Amino acid sequence: MYLTKEEERIYDGEAGESLRKAMEILVALGDINEAPHLIPIKSAHVSGASYKTIGDAYEFVESLDARVKVQTTLNPIGMDKERWRELGVSKEFALKQMKVLKAYEKLGVLPECTCTPYLIGYAPERGEHISWAESSAVIYVNSVLGARTNLEGAPSALAAALVGKTPLYGLHLDEERAPSILFDVECELSDAAEYGALGYLVGKIADDNIPFFKLKTMPNADDLKALSAALGATGSVGMFHAVKGEKGITPEALSYEKPSEVVEIEKKDIKEFFDASIPEDAVLAFGCPHCSTQELRELCRLLRSVKSKHEVFVFVARRLAERENAAIKELKRLGVRVVCDTCMVVSPAFERFSCIATNSAKAFRYVPSMCGAKALLVKTSNISRCFEI
Ligand code: F3S
């Protein structure tokens, strides 16, 4: 990969050891993927923030002596920064977690601790080159917002943030964003959880082929968020395209030829995710990825007329919770536990439950392995069935 004089200077360690390491990661990535050169990025989003997932590897972040060159946000950590004791997180974990957070803050990373930075003022624009980790966010911003990022891991997103550049390959290029399998969804979908089930199915089939969805119904932003998260949970694709009839749903859907390989998805394929009844000991969890304003308001509306038989958790970015103060107050009044900065998958607080029912197909995929609990997928619109009227 071609490097400018300034980039070579960084590569040779003349700008310090931390930047040398960062540049080494970017050059290795660029060389493997035959990138011609680096390109500047507008923002980065870094994962590997929960002590539960990163463990003592955070000491590497702590050892770095540099500052990020672009606006860089951080994924959820392993606890609510303010209410970790109430959630039953141990003091030992909390102390380690705060060290992880401080290590990122020292580099200039914004401690937003959310997987939906695009909902709280950090949405990239169409065509903008960025370097984001966190598959749910990567797929959403590529597909729905038309930004350009590869599916970065924690080290490469951080390296790009420190250098302010990323190698030019993959989803940064028009030709690499072309769809290769058409998924003809022959049924109507009416709930974000159903879009999640679709993503779960398609992720498994498509793997790293970019899917092109032909839908019968028009999804809203939360449906597309659920679809993005589930696709990333079962596949390794970084984006999708979608149309309804001849109308483009995602901004680049009409820019490419429709793929000739077609897979049909029927109602029964989606329906089989939702057959299980909710056991008495289940807790309910909403907000994977972190809730939007509309989701918070919808939960308030759905829970208003029922009495909970189960403990209910809602996960949301702290900044959004502050903005939606009225909805948060109402949810708390209804007995819902509103949790910021973390989620049921990356916090150890949720390992004590035996069954977690959720409207998120991504959480449905990860809860068994990450929390050791049984997971059930429920439609948001059906949650009143889990309650006493
Ligand atoms: Fe976000 Fe946690 Fe789900 S990081 S996408 S809420 S698994």
For the biggest β-sheet, the strand order reads: 9-8-7-6-10
Structural class: alpha/beta
Mean of the pLDDT scores? 96
Q: Identify every distinct bound molecule in the structure, by name, code or SMILES.
A: FE3-S4 cluster
Distance between the termini: 63 Å
Rg for CA atoms:
21 Å
What count of structural domains? Answer: 3
Unreliable sequence segments: none
Report the total helices.
14
What share of the residues lie within helices? Answer: 25-40%
Strand portion: 15-25%
CATH architecture of the largest domain: 2-Layer Sandwich
Largest sheet features: 5 strands, mixed
Briefly say what this structure is:
The protein has 389 residues and is an alpha/beta fold. 36% of the residues lie in helices and 16% in strands.
